[in-house]
Amino acid sequence: MSPRQLFCTVAIAEAVTWTLLIAGMIGKYVLDLGGLGVTIGGSAHGLVAIAYVLTVALVGINQRWSIGLLALAAASAVLPYLSLPFEMWATKTGKLDGSWKREATAARADHTVPARIVRWLVRRPVTAAVILVVALAVIMAVLLMVGPPGK
Known about the structure:
This protein is mainly alpha-helical and about 150 residues long. The protein contains six helices and no strands. Helices cover about 70% and strands about 0% of the residues. It comes from Glaciihabitans tibetensis.
């Protein structure tokens, strides 16, 4: 899976979970159907939003995005559906072009600690998947202990 394919897949998933959350909120607050829809939609959205931010970091570092662009991409998860126009813009402008960088080049950006970590992960996809799933689980567990937004 290329960086573009991964980013597009997770951006679409992030938008789908926004739909689940919004539908759950309509069910709870407009149709008086109770909070199950918000619980399910909110949990799904929280999980995928965290996965989106982790994907932004992984892809953005690989693609040598600036700190500002990384921040903008991550922030696009905050407003409903904004990950999609960001993904379309990034695709159109070539920000997602190319493959995974497995080796360092002479570029200064390739010699930073984050770039080294991303290359290490890219060369070990199974290990990377396990690490990212564990990171996602730890982040989600901590957030669940803190409590849902607004409480």
